[in-house]
């Protein structure tokens, strides 16, 4: 099967859909608020590599890379491989499966030519030990079945990017051990978005939940382009102990280019207290499900009514403090956003029983 909706129990198989999609499927099964979508499975990627001898071709090119290969050699390999892969379209049955799943998503939500995010969900991704965060691409606001196909193809090419190949070599991971599944998910129309850590990312304090958020889509936050609002919540009583307004001078409304935020909104908090508490409640629940601190990407969808407008985008194990002997992977003085490299990925699967009875309540300004 080349596509699986998040609501399909088989979509929780990390080996077939990657950690990102499995995490979204587990959250969907548990009744947690995620934007609807489906996964293009690793089987589709394998089928693509079998097309026109691509697996043999990529193996030959990669086989010429010596143990002491530098970045220039990896970049050369990327050029050679992507030039060939760019000429080979997705196999017909894979393309037909994606078209049908996209049509179903549009039908189920009542949105014609729905704008979707196309996210890489590599099957070697998201283990706490070797996180691929930021190594692969995400594209937002892709509309129409043919464009969706084009961006799935781009995800496949991204496996062989020079920086990914050098990263894999450094971690001693064989590139063909990485199989690319892809998440296709409704683009959230975010009034506000950001990230939440179920511990303090600067001190490791497990008694606190930290949220950082800004206006619009989360691109400005994970890209470090704005100083986000920061909220500190006491994990036990869910009291908000600190609210620090940021300087939110730009926002992404549609995911392509940023626009200026009007001066009167720049210093205004982008989440109200009810939303902060509801998100922190979800964070506690996710930490309990996965039995480890989490980092979570979220949005407040302006197309949805209060009480339904909080959307969890991605969730993965927090990797800095979960291994006590590991040193922090970022400069605390630069703020926690400095080390999040553009992609926050899916957590291991949870069972619905783990998260029975999750409800969120929030109020829009």
From TrEMBL:
Chain ranges of the Pyruvate phosphate dikinase AMP/ATP-binding domain: 15-330
Cofactor entry: Mg(2+)
Protein's pathway: Carbohydrate biosynthesis; gluconeogenesis
Known catalytic reactions: pyruvate + ATP + H2O = phosphoenolpyruvate + AMP + phosphate + 2 H(+)
Enzyme Commission number(s) of this protein: 2.7.9.2
Entry annotated with the keyword Magnesium: yes
Keywords noted in UniProt: ATP-binding, Kinase, Magnesium, Metal-binding, Nucleotide-binding, Transferase
Full protein name: Phosphoenolpyruvate synthase
Organism name: Arthrobacter hankyongi
